[in-house]
Amino acid sequence: MKKILPLILLAGVGFLTYSCDNSNDDPVVVNPGKDNDTFPLMFDAPGTFSASNNYSLIADISIEPTDVVLVYRRAGDAWQQIPKTVYVDPATSASPRRFEYNFVFSNKAVQVRIENQNFLLSTLTTDQANDFLNNQTFRIVLVPADPVKKSAKASTVDFSDYNAVVKHYNLDESKIKTINAH
Questions:
Q1: What pLDDT digit, counting tens, does each position of 148-176 carry?
Q2: Nearest CA to 141 among 100, 182, 173?
Q3: Which of left, alpha, beta for 176 (phi over 0: left; psi -120 to 50: alpha)?
Q4: 66-81: b (≥16 Cβ within 10 Å) or e
Q5: C-alpha to C-alpha distance for 145 and 35, rounded to whole angstroms
């Protein structure tokens, strides 16, 4: 019995030491379905499209590669989501000239560009250039991605409705920063 008691004691201490180890490799999930590395942000990126900048504006950003960028163009007193096709002279032509505001983004930049396949933008009148090319303002909205899509509320956001996006993400329009588009 004297020989077995130290072995039992040693086994008990070993068991307690092993069971109290907090170094497991299980991932800790906080708020499953939530993206905690990106907070919704908005920026205004004003600029003028011209042949010298290849009818594109670039705004520098910094987001996670999995997050989402939404871009809206100021159209009078409202915001319209892009991509957006613009018909330049629909009332005066059976085959109106058109172009499209479009954008691409990475985790470091957003490029807003004009794509025109059926006419040269240099042929726009001065009024048309002022309406569509000069002093344009784009609102860039950075929102977290929700790859799990567990929230039914998240799936009902109409991203084409700027006001719905602002309301859903509780964005404060008084805190919008202006960034330089180049």
A1: 444 445 467 888 999 999 998 888 888 88
A2: 173
A3: beta
A4: ebbbbbbbeeeeebeb
A5: 7
